[in-house]
Specification:
Elements lengths: L4 E3 L3 H9 L5 H14 L2 H20 L10 H9 L5 H18 L15 E5 L12 E5 L8 H21 L11 E5 L8 E4 L4 E4 L13 H14 L8 H22 L10 E2 L14 E2 L8 E2 L3 E2 L15 H4 L5 H14 L7 H10 L9 H16 L1 H13 L9
Length: 407
């Protein structure tokens, strides 16, 4: 089975570093090596997700196709006292049939008793993936060692797993207490970090002149491990709008973990992803801004943040699997607006809405922005009432995700 990896640094940023005449030859070559290592894995990631989906359908339930009428609409028809008994019964019947097609595997299973198991290894600057995970440095229950990268990977992985267990009753990335391996010091001046779904482990480079400290960024680790959670829940495809949603969901849960660690309410947070990865001297603040996509950096050595914040700037492209890293800024902004609009801590209401959307069988692997938006509105109404639903709908409207007749 093909490997797939999700890299925290988007390919367009590495490409810009490699191409800029403002950078030294050594720095450009370092970026090229990181980019070459990353190139092609997005397609393999999509293949992996397709295989996971096919395996789940074969083993657990019949093939599921997304119907023209979404489940939440059928549920609303079935529940509304304004409809006749005949119409409500017909909707109940259709809903029951559709839910059978989805099957139990699309819903989160009951959590096991939490038992965190982390193991951190030293890749010793090798880029030979066959040698991973490397030399073991620290395993669950052991005291800190002299290597800061080892200790940061250990501690921050624990914070991510603790977040999922305590707030969403989800244990490890598969809800079955799977152990999480991490390898630090991958390659020489390797400016990236990634989750390898085949090896079931995190891999961290040490970075270079622009990007570094991947083990110290808890939002980055949360982002990467959330890709593994998505693989075991909604299985969002890694192409086009579904792929941008896949990336956005990782940012959403990564930012919530960061805000929890820093004890920040939604309105007080900076909403920056990967701010701890930007080296001093860089004209930028982070890898991405969820509050203001397109403003994270602007440096002649690698250009300006290209993420759009509104659907008016959305263009169909074949680059980066249909712009999965580029257009994730649109749903990212919708979540940020939702969290601030609902108030309090982001995980209390907004996070719960997104979690139930991606784990509750309301979306399929090929979900687009509009379908995802509709699902979040439905969940918001069910969980928190009409006012919350209006806030969520308005958030999506502000980023241009709205039906044409309502634009």
């Amino acid at each position: 089975m093909a490997h797939h990896r999700c890299f925290v640094v988007p390919p367009y940023l590495l490409s810009a570093i490699a191409d800029s005449s403002h950078n030294s030859d050594a720095l450009r070559e370092s970026a090229r090596r990181a980019l070459q290592h990353q190139t092609g894995y997005a397609e393999q990631r999509q293949l992996r997700l397709q295989l996971v989906e096919a395996e789940a359908n074969t083993v657990a339930h019949p093939q599921h196709t997304e119907g023209v009428v979404p489940l939440y609409l059928l549920q609303s028809i079935a529940d509304s006292p304004h409809n006749s008994a005949e119409h409500r019964e017909a909707a109940h019947h259709t809903l029951g049939t559709e839910q059978q097609h989805i099957g139990e595997s699309s819903k989160p299973k009951l959590p096991h008793k939490l038992h965190i198991h982390r193991a951190i290894y030293d890749a010793q600057h090798s880029m030979n993936e066959a040698s991973l995970p490397g030399e073991v440095c620290r395993v669950e229950g052991q005291q800190a060692v002299k290597d800061d990268s080892v200790n940061e990977a250990y501690e921050n992985t624990g914070k991510v797993l603790d977040f999922y267990a305590k707030l969403f009753h989800w244990n490890s990335y598969d809800n079955k207490n799977a152990p999480v391996k991490s390898s630090v010091h991958f390659g020489k001046h390797y400016e990236n970090a990634f989750w390898d779904s085949e090896a079931r482990q995190m891999v961290y480079g040490d970075g270079h002149d622009f990007l570094t400290n991947f083990t110290g960024a808890v939002d980055v680790i949360g982002h990467e491990l959330t890709h593994a959670v998505t693989e075991h829940t909604s299985r969002l495809a890694y192409v086009g709008q579904a792929g941008a949603l896949n990336e956005s969901v990782s940012d959403v849960f990564g930012i919530m973990i960061k805000q929890l660690v820093q004890n920040e309410k939604a309105e007080d947070a900076d909403w920056l992803i990967g701010e701890d990865c930007i080296c001093p001297g860089v004209k930028g603040v982070a890898l991405r801004s969820m509050k203001a996509p397109g403003t994270a950096y602007n440096d002649p050595r690698f250009g300006k943040d290209p993420q759009p914040a509104h659907m008016r700037d959305y263009r169909v492209t074949t680059v980066d699997n249909g712009g999965v890293h580029l257009y994730s800024g649109i749903p990212n902004k919708a979540f940020q607006l939702t969290a601030v609009g609902l108030g309090g801590y982001s995980w209390e209401k907004a996070g719960k809405i997104w979690w139930k959307t991606v784990t509750g069988g309301l979306i399929g692997p090929n979900c687009n922005f509009l379908r995802f938006a509709d699902a979040t509105v439905n969940v918001a109404e069910k969980e928190f009432g009409d006012e919350a639903a209006t806030i969520v709908r308005n958030a999506w409207k502000q980023v241009g995700v709205v039906r044409k007749e309502h634009a």
